[in-house]
């Protein structure tokens, strides 16, 4: 057996030992309350009495099968002291129906012991209770092993006088040893219906100019009043008690007999009248009724009697409107009716609470999916916006290809819309937009725009393309609707390749966009939002661990200041984002890719180091694809990742030879990478730290998804010599400074830092958020502080353009503009070492 095969066999043996030692012994049946109804059934031909004296009746004819297995009879069943309950199995069981005394919640305990198979995947079935799948993919051998007790417990609601269990075979026959059913309680009362959602319709004060309340909401000038309407500002500078919004009460209208406003649709509306009396000093001097839609909703309002003088009072009521207008009446009983401000909200029924859809598991991948309408909303701002319908529009996407923004319309009234915040900011010089979509389907695209610079037509003109086809030609926002006015373009586009591609082509001046909404026109299967990683590592890998709460070194602040100094002293004071050179030449290869031997190119005397072609053979049988391309730059880095064989190669100075073959100066392979931390065998790999760089690169898929779910590989110019920190296993550090980080050093951006304070680029913001959660890992020494990124060479070969051109939308060296390096926090040496 080769050493490579022995290593794999050893890994399997270790995994088996870990599985066996982690199994939990099946407990004896728990003692039930004396008043709990319990029913116990064994598949044995005769009743069985357990160690607590409880009788399990024979269910020989109750499981839908007459087949019995006695393989474990009189054998020692592992993991239990109740061998008699597990030694007989009903093979091919279809189900069990158990009459129950009343409606209620019943706890079902199923007892199993696999008596034939020792390998996983040989017997698999689902368990159903009351028509619902309670447990999918039960594989007794995988969960417990052969000849070992395994219990499965779940609660189920029964309303029809009988509990129905089912066993649905997926691989081989089902199998069950015994069943215990216990009533554990009443069925919970259904939750109350959700409160309706309030959608703002009117915010109106009595001032002759708009005002803003303490939350920043703007209240308009008065309109819609009828009768002998007068306005008072007597309280214009007087503090108002019991409110933080004095401004709403310091002006008022009085003497009116009615008020009317249009509403968007028939339905229920909540009205709030903001009232204050600044004149009278005793009760009974100002009294009035309020009516709504022909009905009295508030009788005998006496503000002073309720709260006193110069004190805020809010009277609230709900009214149904059918005719498109909300009408209020005011009937004075003493002096004049008086109102300071009016708020009206539409009451939109909340969507009913529904159970989570039953997920299905597609092949391949095993990621749960559900079918629903896909929705994506993005606004051209560095912070999210919530519209009046409650939809959250995420902050600007890095895939717009620009981070040039205009906020000159901040605070403006955008005509033609009630959603001003969606149109008040623009990204200009926008080049495109890339959005991963979950399925082949048709998607409705809505582009939101508002011209902020040109007040006459013909100054800004551009085309819009989707999936390579023109969807809107000669877009001229001012010509279409005028300046500072909402303008939407809506079109449907079929997407077949998993990514919606929009392009904006300038004809005169530069294209701009305010927001983008994408909604599927039908339900599509949507996978669960699982983290994205280019390389699957062990679940506890340092690359995927949340370190936001990890301890910090005592000298962390001094190290952060030193690092910030390194950044500021090099290349214009901005850290590098290695998208175009010294990046990661990453290749994910399919099963069956032709394998070749890589030549060793760094031997001046022709000697070959051990392990490259003998033993583990790191340079042998490498699945290099035909279109492979090493990274630009002297390092010539190349990664080959084969998920099927679970192997990862990284090479240094990889080159294609004249004969079409490949050679490299150094490299290595990680076997069983999905259970690995991401560390190469000592002395091998392409980085000076011995760490795989690929799992920590910023990938194209990360940017298109808008989120980085892993730690970030970073190289530094000053790395301390003579030592390293786990997870590194070597170093090429040269610095003698005690403040210089070491290879393998882990550090994060302060998790408490408010990133909105910084003028970060969209991509810089993504990196900052990942750094707050997963941090950075020093994987190499280089000429500058540099974040590793995936090469775009493979996509350039296919499309003719480098994808980073549109994703970055500027200079790569400007991506990390204003990144707060002085706010990073360094973790202790060897943090997280197993």
Characterize the structure shown.
The strands form 14 sheets. Strands 2-3-1-13-7-10 form a 6-stranded mixed β-sheet. Strands 17, 18, 20, 21, 23 and 24 form a 6-stranded antiparallel β-sheet that branches. A 6-stranded mixed β-sheet has the order 41-52-49-51-50-53. The protein is 9% helix and 34% strand. A hairpin with a 5-residue loop joins strand 15 (211-212) and strand 16 (218-219). It is mainly beta and 834 residues long. It starts with a helix and ends in an 8-residue tail after the last strand. Mean pLDDT is 88; it is low at 1-34 and 354-367.
Give the number of DSSP strands.
53
- Nearest-integer average pLDDT: 88
Q: What would you call the shape? A: globular
Give Rg in angstroms.
Answer: 35 Å
Beginning-to-end CA distance, first to last residue: 30 Å
Question: Approximately how much helix is present in the residues?
Answer: under 10%
Largest sheet: spatial strand order: 2-3-1-13-7-10
Strand % is 25-35%
Q: pLDDT below 50 for ≥5 consecutive residues: which ranges?
A: 1-34, 354-367
From the helix content, strand content and strand pairing, which structural class follows? mainly beta
Q: Biggest sheet, in brief?
A: 6 strands, mixed
Number of helices: 9
């Amino acid at each position: 057996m080769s050493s490579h095969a022995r290593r794999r066999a050893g890994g399997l043996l270790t995994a088996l030992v870990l599985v066996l030692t982690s199994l939990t012994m099946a407990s004896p049946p728990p003692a039930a309350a004396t008043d709990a109804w319990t029913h116990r059934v064994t598949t044995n031909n005769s009743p069985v009495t357990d160690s607590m004296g409880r009788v399990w009746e024979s269910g020989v004819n109750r499981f839908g099968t007459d087949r019995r297995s006695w393989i474990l009879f009189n054998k020692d069943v592992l993991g239990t002291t109740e061998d008699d309950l597990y030694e007989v199995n009903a093979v091919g069981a279809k189900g069990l129906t158990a009459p129950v005394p009343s409606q209620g919640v019943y706890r079902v305990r199923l007892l199993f012991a696999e008596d034939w198979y020792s390998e996983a995947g040989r017997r698999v079935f689902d368990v159903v209770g009351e028509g619902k799948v309670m447990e999918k993919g039960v594989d007794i051998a995988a969960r417990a092993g052969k000849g070992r007790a395994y219990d499965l417990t779940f609660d189920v609601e029964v309303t029809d006088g009988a509990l129905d269990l089912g066993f649905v075979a997926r691989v081989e026959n089902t199998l069950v040893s015994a069943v215990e059913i216990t009533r554990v309680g009443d069925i919970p009362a259904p939750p109350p219906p959700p409160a309706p959602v309030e959608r703002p319709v009117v915010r109106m004060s009595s001032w002759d100019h708009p005002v803003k309340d303490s939350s920043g909401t703007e209240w308009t000038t008065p309109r819609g009043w009828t009768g002998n309407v007068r306005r008072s500002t007597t309280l214009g500078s007087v503090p108002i008690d019991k409110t933080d919004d004095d401004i709403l009460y310091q002006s008022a209208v009085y003497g009116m007999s009615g008020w009317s406003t249009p509403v968007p649709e028939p339905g229920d509306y909540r009205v709030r009248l903001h009232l204050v009396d600044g004149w009278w000093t005793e009760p009974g001097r100002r009294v009035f009724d309020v009516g709504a839609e022909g009905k009295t909703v508030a009788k005998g309002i006496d503000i002073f009697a309720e709260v006193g003088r110069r004190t805020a009072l809010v009277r609230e009521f709900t009214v149904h409107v059918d005719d498109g207008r909300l009408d209020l009446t005011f009937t004075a009983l003493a002096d004049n009716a008086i109102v300071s401000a009016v708020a009206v909200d539409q009451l939109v029924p909340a969507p009913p609470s529904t159970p989570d859809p039953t997920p299905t598991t597609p092949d391949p991948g095993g990621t749960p999916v559900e079918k629903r309408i896909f929705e994506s909303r993005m606004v051209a701002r560095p912070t999210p916006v919530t519209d009046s319908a409650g939809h959250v529009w995420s902050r600007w996407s890095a895939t717009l290809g620009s981070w040039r923004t205009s906020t000159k319309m901040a605070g403006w009234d955008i005509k033609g819309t009630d959603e001003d915040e969606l149109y008040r900011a623009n990204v200009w010089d926008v080049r495109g937009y890339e959005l991963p979509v979950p399925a082949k389907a048709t998607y409705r695209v809505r582009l939101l725009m508002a011209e902020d610079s040109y007040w006459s037509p013909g100054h800004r003109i551009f085309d819009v393309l989707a999936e390579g086809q023109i969807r809107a030609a000669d877009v001229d926002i001012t010509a279409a609707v005028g300046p500072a006015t909402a303008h939407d373009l809506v079109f449907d586009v079929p997407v077949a390749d998993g990514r919606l591609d929009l392009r904006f082509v300038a004809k005169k001046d530069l294209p701009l966009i305010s927001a983008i909404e994408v909604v599927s026109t039908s339900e599509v299967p949507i996978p669960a939002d699982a983290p994205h990683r280019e390389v699957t590592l062990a679940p506890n890998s340092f690359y995927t661990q949340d370190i936001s709460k990890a301890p910090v070194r005592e000298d962390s602040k001094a190290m952060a200041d030193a690092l910030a100094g390194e950044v500021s002293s090099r290349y214009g004071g901005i850290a590098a984002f290695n998208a175009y050179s010294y990046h990661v030449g990453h290749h994910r290869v399919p099963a069956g890719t032709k394998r070749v031997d890589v030549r060793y190119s760094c031997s001046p005397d022709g000697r070959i180091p051990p392990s490259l072609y003998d033993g583990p053979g790191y340079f042998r049988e490498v699945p290099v694809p035909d279109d492979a391309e090493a990274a630009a730059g002297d390092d010539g880095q190349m990664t080959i990742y084969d998920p099927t064989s679970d192997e990862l190669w990284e090479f240094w100075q990889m080159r294609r030879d004249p004969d079409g073959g490949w050679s490299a100066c150094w490299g290595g392979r990680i076997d069983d990478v999905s259970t690995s931390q991401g560390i190469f065998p000592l002395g091998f790999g392409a980085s000076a730290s011995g760490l795989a760089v690929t799992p920590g690169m910023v990938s194209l898929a990360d940017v298109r998804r808008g989120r980085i779910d892993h730690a970030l590989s970073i190289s530094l110019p000053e790395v301390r010599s003579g030592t390293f920190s786990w997870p590194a296993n070597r170093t090429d550090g040269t610095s003698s400074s005690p403040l210089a980080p070491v290879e393998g050093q882990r550090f994060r951006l302060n998790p408490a830092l408010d990133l909105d304070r910084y003028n970060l680029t969209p991509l810089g913001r993504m990196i900052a958020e990942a750094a707050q959660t997963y941090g950075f890992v020093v994987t190499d020494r280089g000429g500058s502080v540099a974040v590793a990124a995936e090469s775009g060479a493979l996509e350039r070969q296919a499309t003719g353009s480098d994808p980073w051109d549109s994703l970055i939308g500027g200079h790569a060296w400007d991506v990390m503009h204003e990144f707060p390096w002085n706010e990073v926090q360094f973790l202790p040496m060897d943090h997280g070492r197993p």
